[in-house]
Amino acid sequence: MWCRVQTQWRTSAGGAVGLDYGVLAWLFKMYAVEDPRALLEDLQVMEGAALAAMNREA
User: Fold this and answer.
1) Where are the domains of the chain?
2) Cα torsion at 36, 40, 46, 51 (round to 10°)?
3) Which pTM does this prediction carry?
4) Neighbour tally for 43: CB within 10 Å
5) Of 3, 10, 19, 56, whose CB neighbour count within 10 A is largest?
6) Parallel/antiparallel/unpaired status of strands 9-12 and 15-19
């Protein structure tokens, strides 16, 4: 799922601030995700790591 959402960033003048969760319900339904809550938590861990890496590079 990360490959599907990694291009869906919300941004501000300072750069990326987090993923746009608006698309998640649609993706979870399309891919018949059995445990969306667990997957959301996993995505949030990856999101945090990606933001930390992007902030180090900035």
Assistant:
1) 2-57
2) 150
3) 0.86
4) 19
5) 19
6) antiparallel
